[in-house]
Specification:
Blueprint lengths: L2 H7 L4 H32 L4 H36 L13 H24 L11 H49 L1
This protein binds fe (ii) ion (FE2) (2 copies).
Amino acid sequence: MNSQSDKNLSHDSLNELITDIEQSHHVFTRTELNRIADLLDDIKLKSLPIAHKFEHYFMELQADLLPHLMKEEHILFPYIRELEKDPKHLPGSCFGSVSNPIRMMKTEHVNVMYLLEKLRELTANYTPTPDTDADVSALYSAMARLDADLEEHIRREDSVLFPRAIQLESEMTAQTEAISADA
Ligand SMILES: [Fe+2]
Ligand SMILES: [Fe+2]
């Protein structure tokens, strides 16, 4: 997505932005992880040499991503929605400032990007050769689509959603402190 689109996104509410991330990227990620796991099962049955190493990184990617999506959907995103709903009252949380879960999510994003890098290296950027098995080619194109979507997904969270949530919370904290000082 280019900077013009990001400009447009900054006019969306945080709630709209989160809904869009969940309905596009989160749904797509879960569907594609399942589809790629099925394709990988077919390749393992044929004992193709790529299967073992690909499976190693892919299983790690899946094991990182599924709980990551859950934590965003059940802990971080509901808190951000609450922040926006009532700008006069900071919602209660079990994690202190929103910066804490965001720091954790960003660390997990770095690990996802590392695993994608490993999968790209292993597959020459998901590029089949003329003698590549048809199932492996299908695996590469599915993984290339998931890779591109994850890159965009992570960029929207790291560069648009998270900074806006941190800014909103810090403005609300400053307001609350000013009101307490006046009282
Ligand atoms: Fe996400
Ligand atoms: Fe994320």
